[in-house]
Design brief:
By secondary structure, this protein is of the alpha+beta class. The chain contains 17 helices and twelve strands. It has a five-stranded antiparallel sheet. The chain has a five-stranded antiparallel sheet with strand order 7-6-12-11-10. It has a two-stranded antiparallel ribbon with strand order 8-9. α1 packs antiparallel against α2. The radius of gyration is 21 Å and the shape is globular. The N and C termini lie far apart (44 Å).
Length: 372
């Protein structure tokens, strides 16, 4: 239908912006208009250097567009700072007014000098990633607009995994793209393994790092010219992602990467970037690029795989992680900033989806599936 096609066009725009960073402003402008917000900002920052890898804005008027960066730290503090941000559920839309009172912002520089003069009274935000990157996108609500609706929140949930995947791949590209003459030159310069494949997983291109992986058979394998990931945690996930990329990203809805084991027991994640709409790669018949990365911090649970297997929502996956760490329901509620009753709801849905009846059974399942 018309709405689905609009969402697919927005998703394609997100991935086009990864390849051509100059398109990021247009990509998030399309999302802002589709969801009906006043303005939008997207930021991807390298940690701990603080270097901005992606900075995009939509409908931010001058001179506010020139001064937004001055209030980055204060904007973070409004959400409770980095420690609080780290506890929030990635990919889950969060409405600022659910966590804070507008009256508490009076006197703060970001509100007084930036938000208030523009008539902004609320914000719907997403933490996309918080590892070696801090990636977030925020949509501002004008005081003349109605309250944020469930339809707006659900619309952002559809786009969230694609925005997260794009942010992670942008971090892997790590600024080299702006200095390279072409997308292929960027791939050649990367330290991460990168492979371009067609719809049948035939290898069209592999950079030097990927060729070394093929030679070692770890974690990628090339058999009769076709790509394989033999220690993929959820078998068939890579093939499904490539098939979805060939269809124009329609099926790339869950998670942002495909977890796999290395031969020595370590972890790797394969991120999939659809290329179907990008003219520069069509002559090579490539439909997807694979970026192979090792997690920057220990991945105790293959949460991407668990989300796929059990159809977990981001909040349910986060509760899963905290239960396995041994946190009580009250501690989980405090960590996530939600009501104990909401934790109970997430827990019961989690038990039902995973097919267990107790926290002990859930912990045993986690041990059985642990990467470590």
């Amino acid at each position: 239908d018309i709405r689905t096609q609009a969402e697919l066009d927005l998703i394609a725009g997100i991935y086009d912006a990864v390849i051509e960073p100059a398109r990021w402003n247009d990509a998030i402008d399309g999302i802002r208009r589709h969801l009906g917000f006043q303005l939008c900002t997207l930021t991807v920052v390298s940690i701990p250097s603080g270097r901005v890898l992606v900075g995009a804005q939509s409908n931010v008027p001058h001179p506010f567009s020139e001064t937004a960066h001055l209030y980055g730290n204060d904007a973070l503090e409004q959400w409770g700072g980095l420690k609080r941000i780290e506890t929030l559920v990635q990919e889950e839309p969060m409405l600022f007014s659910h966590y804070n009172r507008l009256a508490d912002l009076v006197g703060r520089p970001f509100y007084e000098n930036w938000s208030r003069p523009q008539g902004l009274v609320d914000q719907l935000a997403l933490v996309l990633e918080f590892t070696a990157l801090l990636a977030n996108i925020a949509f501002a609500v004008h005081d003349s607009a109605p309250p944020v609706s469930n339809a707006q929140i659900e619309g952002l949930r559809v786009l969230a995994p694609h925005l997260r995947r794009a942010a992670i791949i942008s971090g892997l590209l790590d600024g080299r793209q702006q200095a390279a003459a072409s997308f292929e030159a960027t791939l050649a310069a990367l330290g991460s393994g990168v492979v371009l494949v067609d719809e049948q997983l035939r290898v069209i291109y592999a950079n030097e790092r990927a060729e070394a992986m093929f030679a070692a058979g770890d974690p990628l394998v090339r058999t009769a010219g076709r790509l394989d990931l033999p220690r993929e945690l959820v078998r068939g996930q890579l093939a499904a992602a490539v098939a979805a990329a060939a269809r124009g990203s329609a099926g790339l809805q869950r998670g942002s990467g495909i977890p796999a084991r290395l031969s020595d027991g370590g972890e790797a994640v394969v991120h999939v970037l659809p290329l179907g709409r990008h003219q520069a790669t069509r002559s090579f018949a490539a439909v997807a690029a694979m970026f192979v990365a090792q997690p920057s911090r220990e991945l105790n649970l293959p949460m991407e795989a668990l989300q796929l297997l059990y159809q977990l929502r981001p909040a349910e996956a986060r509760v899963f992680e905290l239960i396995v760490r041994g946190l009580r329901a009250a501690d989980i509620a405090s960590t996530l900033g939600i009501a104990p009753s909401t934790v109970k709801t997430h827990t019961l849905r989690l038990f039902d989806k995973v097919g267990v009846h107790s926290r002990a059974q859930l912990a045993k399942l986690a041990r059985d599936m642990s990467l470590g």
